[in-house]
Amino acid sequence: MADVRDIMELDHPTSQEVTRESIIGSDKQRKRPPTTTKTQKRPEGMHREVFALLYNDNKDVSPLFPSDTGHGYKQTKIKLGMRKPRKWKWVPFTNPARTDGAVFHHWRRPSDEPKEYPFAKFNKKVDVCTYTDAEYQQHLKVDGWTKEETDHMMQLAQRFDLRFILMADRYDTEKFPKRSVEDIKDRYYKICGIMSRLRGEKKIYTYDVDHEKRRKEQLKKLYDRTQEQIEEEQFLLLELKKIEARKKERERKTQDLQKLISQADSQSETPRKTDKKLPKKKIANPSRPSRVDTAHILQAVETAGIKFPDYKNSGVSLRSQRMKLPANVGQKKSKGIEQMLQEIGLELNPIPTEEICQNFNELRSDMVLLMEIKSALSTCEFELQSLRHQYEALNPGKTLTIPPQLISNLDLENKVGTGEIIDVVGSPSTPTS
């Protein structure tokens, strides 16, 4: 420090006496900070209960493996009793599942009673059909099978627990002709069926040998396909999916077009609304009389009904889809059909058999036709009333007489028997009170 001050031409400080304290420090013990255990801060986002499980009261980290070294054993020394230990004895035993009479040995206490070998219960045997010589001669004789060969087959079935593949492999082809798995199964199940009927059993086994042979032939052909045949099949499946997608798209466009046509027809069939009240002194324009469009109404009635789509798609389909109403049937008609079905006491979704599907669809189509006819009839009656009002407005004091054959309502027909018609609101002769 003095050299630095000489270089910087600074004044030297007043000299201080060199003492022991200035060199080695004072003898006073420095106050050490209190030793406190370093506590780990709880990580952000961790619950207090979870953090408390990581440390104990002494703030020691919990061990990775559970141990009881901290507490020790309750009994530090083993306490040996004065009783004699039980003896074990090497004793023989037999397995009842074996038929060869083999004898084995194991350890067992002499005080324990001998029990059946516990693993013998897992030896499950298949119940193989049996017969007597008289039953075979009377019921089981067939051409192509002798009694010796049949007995040999039944012995193999008993030996291999009806594992027919092993039976065909162990078949004695030196004494008997070679038999396939299907032939052995067919002969065995025919014998079982005959014996079950003779004994009056309800469970009768049947085996279709022709179907089994065809199934295995088809599996063999499927397994023997070449790579070119597999690729060709995949290509055809993709083409089939494309064809079905295009067909569905055409059907969707057809349904949309049919819906637009039906909407246009329903708008044209809606009767024109006239004024609510026709003033008594107001005279209608005689040059534009209201007339019923009979041709249009007849055309609407002829085209009424439901046209159900014909489900002839490739693959599996449900017959209940045939009873599903098309998309062009509006909600109003659907509600009307449901109401009429409830009135006559029929189910909304009956069992879809072939006959029920056809008759149920025809019934609902006739219901829609009936609704269209009622709508056309109400339109005609409305037009007749409008013509009557116009006639009475042009000819005061006169009443228009409508022929009874044009009146469909029975109550109206009874009341107009004398030639008079019921007056409605808006006609000149309607009372004001």
Describe this protein's structure.
The chain is mainly alpha-helical. The chain is built from 13 helices and 2 strands; from the N terminus they run αααββαααααααααα. It has helices at residues 2-7, 20-24, 48-52, 133-140, 147-159, 164-169, 181-198, 209-223, 227-269, 294-302, 331-344, 354-394, 410-415, and strands at 89-94, 103-108. Helix 10 (294-302) packs antiparallel against helix 12 (354-394) and helix 11 packs across helix 12 (354-394).
Which helices and strands, and how do they pair?
Elements: H1 2-7, H2 20-24, H3 48-52, E1 89-94, E2 103-108, H4 133-140, H5 147-159, H6 164-169, H7 181-198, H8 209-223, H9 227-269, H10 294-302, H11 331-344, H12 354-394, H13 410-415
Antiparallel strand pairs: 1-2
Helix pairs in contact: 10-12, 11-12
